[in-house]
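SEQUENCE-TO-STRUCTURE ENTRY
===========================
What this section holds: a protein sequence and its matching fold, both as plain text.
Question of interest: how does this chain fold, as expressed in backbone structure tokens?
***
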Amino acid sequence: MPLDFGRLPTLARDLDALLTREQVDVVNSHGTGDRRALTWLRWTRRLGRPFVVTRHTMPLTSPAELVAVGLSADRTIAVSHAVARALRRRLYPTGRLRVVPNGIEFARVDAQPSDGDMATARAALGDLGGRPVVLVLARRKDQHILLRALAALERPVVVACVGIEPDAELRAVERTVPTRHRVAYVPFTERPLAFARLAAVSALPSRIEGLSIALLETMALGLPVVASDAGGNPDLITTGDTGLLVTPLDPRAWAQALARVLDDAEFAARIARRGRELVRREFALERTAER
């Protein structure tokens, strides 16, 4: 059923009709629009079924809205301790707040991409010319910071921004990237892990991540990871052990971190191995269900 997320009254009405028609027992909100609509339904006494809110990213909404949602939801799930701490700092009601870290399905992650998927990924990246691939598997975050870092990175690389198309800011920064590097943009794809098979390092320049599925999956595949020291990334990465954390919005720090991973094969292999062990031990989907 198509839903109009731009108009709160319409969305609330349509969700109410959908939940009634499908005889939904429990409703779990994962996004801003549906969270607001379901909160409105609860406050207007039209949502009698259990209402769960799952917070995937660091909260940016106002404390007033957070309090309204927190008082309406029967349970709020934060996908990391960082998200839970941020909610508490913004006065979110804590009585019904629980931390349940994200988990991943290893069978899906481990499934070998088809020859067609691999061919599509190679074609999207173009001629690598022997350059290692830095994979950024994310919607629009701080990719522009990583691109600015390339001026200080001597090792030629191909940066694969998978999941986005370039906007004006990215195009402007790309024009300053030295010619020894190349940037490839890949729109949203249902087969992103084919690109992980071609990558040397997984990077996540993001300040709002709760607990990144992309990091979990690429770590599970044995890639070394570099991520912003912000949001829920430190809940997953111990810098120098299971990956590297980088000062957010600092291109030079990003260049130094990427150089360390790309130029020191022994170090890269060690953090990749430790990261893989951590994810496969602690972040299986079955463990998430148990929690």
